[in-house]
Amino acid sequence: MKKHIFNMKLCIFSCIVTLSIISTLIPAFAASFDSQTKKILFITDVAESKSMNSFNAQQYDSALADLVEINNIDMNAFSDYEAIALPFEEEAYELAKSAYEIGSTVYLYGQLTIQDYKEIVGIENYALAVPIYKNDGTTEKVEQFFDATYEENELFNVISYSDYALLCKISPEISNGSATTYMQRESYIEMPNSIYLSAIENNFLELKSKTMTKGIIDSEFDFVHYFGPNADFSVHLDYTLYKNDSERDTAYDYLGIKTNVWVDNDYGEVTRLQTKYDLTFSADNLLETGPEPQTNAGELSVSIGYGNSGPSGNISYSVDLSNIKPNISRDEDYTNDIVEWAMTPRTWFPIYLGGTSFHCCATWASKETRSAAAIDIFYAGRVNTGPSGIHPVDSTYVKVPVRFFYS
Q1: Tens digits of per-residue pLDDT, 112-151?
Q2: Which among 171, 167, 157, 156 is positioned nearest to 394, based on CA atoms?
Q3: pTM of the model
Q4: How far apart are CA 200 and CA 157, in angstroms?
Q5: At what angle do helices 114-121 and 93-101 cross, to 10 degrees?
Q6: Closest C-alpha to 252, from 261, 242, 244, 240
Q7: CB of 107 within 8 A of CB of 86?
């Protein structure tokens, strides 16, 4: 039996949510990257400013960001920047709120929760209107949000709120036998501000690219976990939501998700990608999952339906893995509605995954009376470093509780 349920307030609210409410509660972000002068204003303290400008420091991109000490702020200059990055400390609270009110993308860095961010910046609802793809080829918008427990307790190192809202973890090093694991600890470990700035720059550049190439973009969350020496590696998650309306069931709605996990690394070799799904509500049922376990996967074609008694339709994709031919494992637990995959290199060359992305998908039956859906997604990666890749460096699993209201 799974232990999580929505409280009564959320259940009542879910019944009255409509798409028109979504459009009024969730802001339309005006990311107008039409000027080459638009960049990041990175605000820091005196000591970190000197450190970041020192000869030995890892150099930041001065064409993308300007550094300023927090005691030398001219708030009139905020309008010259598309994004403002500030430390999570009391001295910066009013600055963050003012920057958000004039339309800047605000990044807060340090160690904070989503609830901290909401209170400081002045956001009532940290949610996005994201697309959900229907079996007839159309899309609609649903409100994706996080429950109160997650918002109040889950710690992040950088948070922003935009059409590409950043939820970033940066983990210190902990030795763990033969492997080195990077994980968050209860005692906060101070990190150089250059690491925060690098994470902010990566998100800002992607947001800028999306806006300039597409004009109007679909909103999404940017889930990323930096790990390894100096946070040199990063593991990422994105996903697509599905809803099947082809057959009306009075008891259940039929939903689906496809995830994508990958690792970015400037050195070392990627040797493991992991994903896990866990249905939150005990009344929901896991239906079909893919890919199936296999060795030496080449041209991978996946197609899953909505169970033997569910509606027609499928979620499908194909990917060519013939250049690496990895092994894929899958563990399914239909009693507890959990499925977990891992992609690893095959025994013979190539023994690394390269720049591969790992796609997985599942469908489930969601209790119709709730009009709110929930599934927990976990993601992780491994990079091997050193001579012949003898040192494995693992990220820990990061949990993403996917919650959304739908009509």
Answers
A1: 999 999 999 999 999 999 999 999 899 999 999 999 999 9
A2: 171
A3: 0.87
A4: 11
A5: 70
A6: 244
A7: yes
